[in-house]
Amino acid sequence: MRIVSLAGGIGGARFLRGLKAAAPGSDITVIGNTGDDITLFGLRVCPDLDTVMYTLGGGIDEEQGWGRSGESHVVKEELAAYGVEPQWFGLGDRDFATHIVRSQMLAAGYPLSQVTEALCDRWQPGVRLLPMSDDRTETHVVISDENGRRAVHFQEWWVRLRASLPAEQIGLVGAEDATPAPGVLEAIGEADLVILPPSNPVVSIGTILQIPGIRAALEDKTVVGVSPIIGGAPVRGMADACLTAIGVETSAQAVLELYGSRLIDGWLVAEEDKGVALDGVTVEARPLLMDSPEATRDIAAAALSLAHTLHA
Ligand code: FO1
Fold first, then answer.
1. Which CDD domains match (predicted)?
2. What is the CATH number assigned to the segment(s) 2-134+177-311?
3. How does residue 161 score in pLDDT terms, banded at 50, 70 and 90?
4. Which of 40, 91, 118, 308 is the most buried (most CB within 10 A)?
């Protein structure tokens, strides 16, 4: 069975581990968010691609959900000793190697999709990981503080500010000129089923849907999404701050309406949200807490089962 999944962030990567367990032997293509990507110290960092690669490849810092296991931070300390900025983004020594290899290949002219394939050759994530686009796009956030109103990179808002200042606008810079990476539209076209993990609907799934052509391709497929909001609150991360920034209520109903019934055929919600409904969408309620690998596998299996029912 050919499955396509759009993913970003820690929740998305953890869900994909469950999807692999729920569909052994299936051919899974992951379209990864690159709106979080940032250039630091001359190196290109791709947090959501790396989080999927490390999580599925066995190299993730499990407790943190991002970055490498068994990390040290000597290079970070040395950079700080030179006083170079930023010091608020925690790059570990092992993680630096990934960014050095990626930056070296990008500088040699390889597109991000080929760089990602080369990095995954080491990690063997067991899925085909494609960036949403080879073109550079970045999520920037408009904030206002004592220095006035300005746009900052998403990572600065997310990591340095911890979303403490309201995001007046969240936008994917470069989206309108970007094209899907090679293989993205083909994978969607050939997919039997498409699953949307409980990733951040604005800065992870939402950014992928902004790449011209991707949403339209998905609308032709059977798509089942897993609500990232349980009982009015995100399980982890700051999806609420992002949803508020775009004027959307933090609820399973509002996220379903944000995605829309042209895109979504099936929607998994937590039991406390079983009143969620939208014409043209089959809603199913079940426990949605990914609090163990087995629970995650069961959620993924439920999403696949609903997709099968709807695809028939
Ligand atoms: N998140 C943090 O909260 N603090 C960090 O210092 C941090 C560093 C970091 C380094 C590499 C990487 O791949 C991810 C990192 N993240 C960090 C997580 C990152 O901000 C988020 O995973 C995504 O960008 C949003 O899902």
1. CofD_like
2. 3.40.50.10680
3. very high
4. 91
Q: Name the residue with the closest Cα to ligand 1, atom 26.
A: 9
**In angstroms, what is the span from residue 184 Cα to ligand 1's centroid?**
25
66 lines ligand 1 (CB under 6 A): yes
Kindly state if the Cβ of 50 falls inside 6 Å of ligand 1: yes
Ligand 1 centroid–CA 107 distance in Å is: 23
With tokens 């899907």, the residue in question is: 180
- Its pTM stands at 0.97
Please name the residue ranges forming H helices in the chain.
9-22, 47-57, 74-81, 93-107, 112-123, 154-155, 184-190, 205-209, 214-219, 239-245, 252-259, 293-311
Cα-to-centroid distance, 10 and ligand 1 (Å): 9
For 126-160, write each residue's pLDDT tens digit.
999 999 999 999 999 999 999 999 999 999 999 99
For residue 198, say if its preceding peptide bond is cis, omega within 30 degrees of 0.
no
pLDDT of amino acid 235: 85
